[in-house]
Amino acid sequence: MSAIRRKFGEDYQVVNTNRGMTFSAPVKRKRQRFVEKNGRCNVQHGNLGGETSRYISDLFTTLVDLKWRWNLLIFILTYTVAWLVMASMWWVIAYIRGDLSHGGHDSSYTPCVANVYNFPSAFLFFIETEATIGYGYRYITEKCPEGIILFLFQSLLGSIVDAFLIGCMFIKMSQPKKRAETLMFSQDAVISQRDGKLCLMFRVGNLRNSHMVSAQIRCKLIKSRQTPEGEFLPLDQCELDVGFGTGADQLFLVSPLTICHEINTNSPFFDLSQRSLMNEQFEIVVILEGIVETTGMTCQARTSYTEDEVLWGHRFLPVMSLEEGFFRVDYSQFHNTFEVPTPPYSVKEQEEKSSLSSPNPLPAVSIPTSPLLGNCGRGGRRERLLSADCADHVDDQASRLPSKLQRMSSTNEEHLWRGLKTRSVLPGGKASSMGDLPLSIQRLRSSSIPAARQSQLEEQVQLLALDGNAEEGELEKQRLPVAISSITAPNPTPIQIPLLGTRPEDNLPPKLRRMNADR
Description:
Blueprint: H1 2-8, H2 53-57, H3 59-65, H4 68-97, H5 119-130, H6 145-173, E1 183-185, E2 189-194, E3 197-206, E4 212-226, E5 232-240, E6 250-251, E7 257-262, H7 274-277, E8 283-292, E9 298-306, E10 310-312, E11 314-316, E12 320-322, E13 327-329, E14 337-339, H8 347-357, H9 381-386, H10 390-400, H11 403-422, H12 439-448, H13 451-465, H14 470-488, H15 510-518
Parallel strand pairs: 2-10
Antiparallel strand pairs: 1-3, 2-3, 3-7, 4-5, 4-6, 4-8, 8-9, 11-14, 12-13
Helix pairs in contact: 3-6, 4-5, 4-6, 13-14
């Protein structure tokens, strides 16, 4: 069927052997391309008006851009006209001086140019002089100053014409456009999965053994669209990422390579599915640039893929094989593809399905608030460890207070936790040491607190110092506000840790007790 379609075109009719059933294949209009498969841009410029003079100002580039038939015509006409004009000037000089009337040129007469009798002889003299042939039969004599001046002008003009036309032909022949003929692109592009991601892929290859230095590839999506403001943009160009951020666009084009464009949220094909591909209209322009190794000139090869040339669920056949001592590339399989299992959904639809099928996230742990530490101040040790935002929340609340209150709050918290670690806290955050106070003050402090109050405070200090399992953390949450309120109370009650004996003196070392008894 494909052979018949290539031979007869798309407008053919498929007839079944059953006479009762006759149907025609869908006729699809030929797609108008922006860039042809051979890289030629299908754009013509018209209605230039007075801008055509710009082509004359850049005459050399204009001649190089012309087709070969026009270049050859200009080349031949320029030399022919120049030769005829210069030959006519030599004939005019001979006619003015009367050299044409002296046909034989006797020995007593000295002409301007020897042996120039008519126009053909003047033309031959110019050709011999211009081509530096110099047969020696025709030559300029010293009796002709105007001939000497014309000879100098002829030499200068001939050099200019030679440099211009020969340079133009050389640049025309050495253009790297023909080098692009040996750079191949696959006939079709494919969409399939690679490394678990949906990708648009096509293949490039180099038929020559000479390398493309600094080869780089770019892709443009040509698609008409309408902006939210209502502006219609025909043939809007959008960049397709083929590894610009990772350096994958820089190619070492020794063997055929498969160029990959990952379809993600930043791709214009994010919502493209197998069904929507049939109704889309776009064109992917591929541009391969590099420096020709042999000439050092920059070469650019181009091609394009329309939506009909993008195959969903296909992959390229491998073309590399290992032989004895070298790798072999089979270019007969360069354009061939085969089908692979590929989801018919777009990346957008796949992400929506995966988000719906994913389990619900764990509920957030509710932590009761605390007037000092905010939402992260209370709770057990496990809850404090699981809360990753606790420290940031406390810093945010502390930064909202005035600077003086921030200093007071930080000082109080520091003294509180330092006292809890040493298990001896005084009002105001100062650590108590019975050995550092005089004996009279120790008696007053111990006698000023009843025994019941001492046992209660002992429980509070011991409970505040605990940092263990969940039960200890729960007791800490219940006792911590009591200790904090004791700091902020206007008339705090002094806290004294109960001693081991009934009297304060019993807790002193023996040496100090003897010294007290002597006093």
